[in-house]
Amino acid sequence: MNGVLIIDKPSGLTSHDVVNRVRRILKERSVGHLGTLDPLATGVLPLVIGSLTRLAQFYTASEKAYEGVIRFGFATDTYDADGEALGSPQPVAPTLDEVRQIAAGFRGFVEQMPPPFSAKKIQGVPAYKLARKHKDVALKPVRVEIKEFEILGVDGDRASFQARVASGTYLRSVAHDMGQQMGCGAHLQSLRRTAVAEFDLADAHTLEELAAAAAGTLEDLFVHPRKLLPRFPSVTANEDMAAHIRSGRTVNLPEFSKAQQVKVFSGQRELIAIATRVAGTLFHPRIVLVGNEAAHTVK
Fold this sequence. Notes:
Structural class: alpha+beta
CATH superfamily of the largest domain: Pseudouridine synthase
Distance between the termini: 25 Å
CATH topology of the largest domain: Pseudouridine synthase
Radius of gyration: 22 Å
Helix content: 10-25%
Largest sheet: 10 strands, mixed
Low-confidence stretches: 291-299
Number of domains: 3
Number of strands: 20
Shape: elongated
Strand content: 35-45%
Order of helices and strands: EHEEEEEHEEEHEEHEEEHEHEEEEE
Mean pLDDT: 89
CATH class of the largest domain: Alpha Beta
């Protein structure tokens, strides 16, 4: 079974929990995800299945979009609502203008300290494992890009927002840092991911929907392969070209002389390779996806 499936992750499950459930539902061991979501968070979790797990390398720097709520008045050790409060809550009622003024300083390229409870590694050990043991978590600031960060409204001690960020950005850290600047503490109360790369909530299905469909046909739940990696042009291979590609041989694609990489299809739905231009109009398969067999990278 090969495909890309978008799950609307429920709160309370880790991304790995979702992967394990999908493995059991589909009876397929080869399942991976394209970007971790915290247990608290919900929303778009793209999964790659079967031979298409090899496409994960093209999504490591994917842009992501979110909507959520920041609660002011106290910080937590995890920077979100799942953590322990750091001090007693303070009664606060920031104005919309106040919150928007602070939020403006978080747009663009910023130096951000990752949360101590995060997957960032310290000498090979994830920070959250050290934090759970109450050991020192010596993380370093990371330069991240927050492309959009809009405060939509304020209700009491809570501010709703939407954001669009580059890979590696922690909105938990944004909430925590805003609270520090306001002098009252803050944490991320809720977070919903609305998009990853070309995938959004319109593509997403619940685990319950997946389980129900598993008894029949699953094709309608998978993202159409032609939608994948839209920055790469698509070429539909004839029988001879497909045979060359599948065996790892170079092919001539004169109509794609300006492209660096192309998606090669057999028919409308079977993605058989990602090919890279090596010289002129000659393309060499970088990754070959051979039917239902395991994908392999062609050197």
